[in-house]
Amino acid sequence: MKILDRYILSTYLKTFISVFLILMLIFVLQTIWLFIKELAGKDLDLVVVLKFLLYYSPKLVPLVLPLTILLSSIMVFGNFAENYEFAAMKSTGISLQRAMTGLGIFIGILGITTFFFSNNVIPWGEYNSYNLRKNIQKLKPAMVIAEGQFNDVGYFNIKVEKKSGLNGKDLKGVVIHEKTSSSGGNKNHRTIVSKTGELIGDEKSSVLKLILHDGYFYDDTPPRDFKARQKHPLVKSHFQKYTFNIDLSDQTNLDLDEKNITDNYTMLNIRDLSYTIDSLKLETKKDYDELAENLHNRSHINALNTGITPAKDSVFTGNSIIDIFENNKKIQLVDLALNATKSTRQIILTKETNFKGKNINYNKHIIALHEKFALGFACIILFFVGAPLGALIRKGGIGLPMVVAILLFLTYHFIGIFAKNSAKDGSFNPMLAAWFSTLVMLPLGIFLTKRATEDRGLFEFDHIVEPLKKIFKIKSKNKEKVEEKTSENTIKAEDTKAVQAISKDYNFHSKTAFVFYISGIVTLILFFVFRNNKLPSFASASVQLSVISFALVVFYYLKAWLNMKKLYSFLKDKTNSKNPFILIFGFIFYPLTHYLRRNKINEDFYNTLK
C-alpha cells in the first residue's frame, strides 16, 4: 500500500469511527427513551439493561452505517478539496479515481462484512432482544398497564382510559376481558366495565388486587345444551364495588433469559428465510385449493342430475324455471338461494381477510431476505455519492457536509420506507422494494463520480442556455458589461471601514439566524417525540420554543438579507436577486443558504479587491 493510500485510509477511518460511535450513541439514547416505560420501575439491575441495549444495538446498524459512510465521505473528501490536497494530487498526475481506489477497496470489504453482519448478528440480536423485552413486560404487569390500549395481564386483558395518583394506582374507564377456554379456543365471554378502579399490591407480592367501583358485569358464556345455546343468553349485573385478585405467581418467577419466541421474520437468516418463504407459498396454495374445493362442493354441481327424471314430451312456457313451482315453494327457494349466497359470500370475505394477512406476512419475509443483500450494496453506492459530492462542494467539517448528508440520507431512508410499506400489501413488488432506495441512489452516484472525475461543477446549464440564446438571438449581458463591471466593482478606500462594519453585522445576523433555525428544528422534533410518548406538558413547551425560534429566524434572516443588499450596493452589483420566491426558498433551506451566501460574498469581495 502506497503512502497516499495509507494517508487517505487513515484519515477516513478516524472520521468514520468517530462519526459511527457518535451516531450509535445517539440512536442508543433514543432507544432508551423509546423503551423507558418498559425498563423503568421493574427493579432491573444494570446488567439486564445493558444486555437489552447490547441485543438491540445490531438492529440500529442498518440505520447508522449508511449515514456514517455518507457523512464521513463528504467530510473527508470535502476537507481534502478545501485544503487543496486534491489540487496537489492532480498536479502530480494522480486523478480522483486513483485517490478513491484504496478507500473503495476498503468500502467493498466493509459491504461484504455488512452482509454477513446482517445475516448472522442482526437476527441474533433481534431474537434475544425480543424475548428479553417480552420477559421484562411480564415481570411486573401492574407497571405495564398502559393507557388507551389492552394489556395482557395474567388471564385478563385490561384496558384503562386514564391513570393517575401515586404510581398510577387510580384508574378511570376500566374495561376487563376475562380469557376463558372453550371448544372454539380462548374467547372473552366475561367482560367487566367500571367507571373507576384502584390497584393495590406489594412489589414483593405475587398477587395484584384490583378494586372496581360503579360498573357492570357481563357474561355470555354459551350453555352446554344446544337448544339453550341458540337463545344466546346474556347475564348482566350492576355493582357498586367489586374486588378480585390476579395471581401473578407464574409471571413474577420469570427467567429473563428464557427464549421461546423464534418465528419472527426479523430473527431469521437467509437459509431460514428461504425455507419459510417456500413453506408460506405452499401453505397459501393449499389454502386456495381448499377454498376452491369448498366453494365447488357448496354449489352442488356434482349432484345436479341425481334423482331427476325429466318428462321427454313436456313443454315449458314460463318466463323462468322458478315458475314451475307453487308460490309457497318459490319463496322457500328464493330464501334458500339468498342464504346460500350470503353464506358463500361470508366465507369468501373471511378467507379474503385471512389471505391478505398471509400475503403481508409472505411479503415481509421476501423484503427481509433481500434487505440483507441490499444493505452491503447501499454502503458502497452511498460512498460513491458522498466522496465525489465532498470533492465538488469543497467544504469539510460538520457544517454544510452534515446538512447535505442528512438531507440525502433522509431521502434515501424515506424512499425505502415508502417502498416497503407499499410492498407489504402487494401494491409494489416486495423484492424491488428492498432495493428501491439503493437503485434510486445509483444514478446519483454515477453522475457525481463522473462530475468529480472530470473536474466539473455540480450543476452546469451552459449547454442548455447557450443554444437557446443563439436560437432567440439573446445577447449576453456579461459580455457587454465586462469593462463596466471592472470599473464599478472597486471599493473606494474611504468605504472600507463601512464595508467592514456591514460585513460584521451580516455575519452576526446570519449566524444568529442559523443557530435559531437549528434550535427550531430540534424543538419541533422533540415536540413529536414528547407527543408520541404521551408527555403533553413537554410537547407543549417544545412547540412554543419552536415557534419562538422560527420567529427569531425570520427577524434575523431579514436583517442579514438587508445587510447583504447594502454590501452589494457598494459594489454597484445588481445581480443580487430581489425575487420574493428566492427569499422564501432561502428561508426554508436556510442552513444551505447560510453557507452558500457566505462563500459567494467572500468570493465576490476577493475578486473585487484583487
3D structure, described in words:
- The chain has 610 residues and is α+β, with helices and mostly antiparallel strands.
- Helix content is 66%, strand content 11%.
- It contains 18 helices and 6 strands.
- Strands 1-2-3-4-5-6 form a 6-stranded antiparallel beta sheet, with no helix packed on it.
Can you give keywords for this protein?
single chain; 610 residues; alpha+beta; 6-stranded antiparallel β-sheet; 18 helices
Topology:
Elements: H1 3-34, H2 36-39, H3 46-82, H4 85-91, H5 96-139, E1 150-153, E2 156-164, E3 170-182, E4 185-200, E5 207-219, H6 226-229, E6 235-247, H7 249-252, H8 270-298, H9 327-393, H10 400-424, H11 430-453, H12 462-472, H13 477-480, H14 482-488, H15 496-532, H16 536-571, H17 580-588, H18 590-609
Antiparallel strand pairs: 1-2, 2-3, 3-4, 4-5, 5-6
Helix pairs in contact: 1-3, 1-5, 3-5, 3-9, 3-10, 5-9, 8-9, 9-10, 9-11, 10-11, 15-16, 15-18
Q: Any idea what the radius of gyration is? A: 35 Å
* DSSP strand count: 6
Secondary-structure element series: HHHHHEEEEEHEHHHHHHHHHHHH
**Category by helix and strand content:** alpha+beta
Report the span from N to C terminus.
43 Å
Global morphology: extended
Low-confidence stretches: 252-256, 460-465, 476-491
- Which strand-content bin applies to the residues? 5-15%
Main beta sheet: strand number and arrangement? 6 strands, antiparallel
The share of residues in helices is: 55-70%
Question: What oligomeric arrangement do these chains adopt?
Answer: single chain
Strand order of the largest sheet: 1-2-3-4-5-6
Number of helices: 18
Overall pLDDT confidence? 76
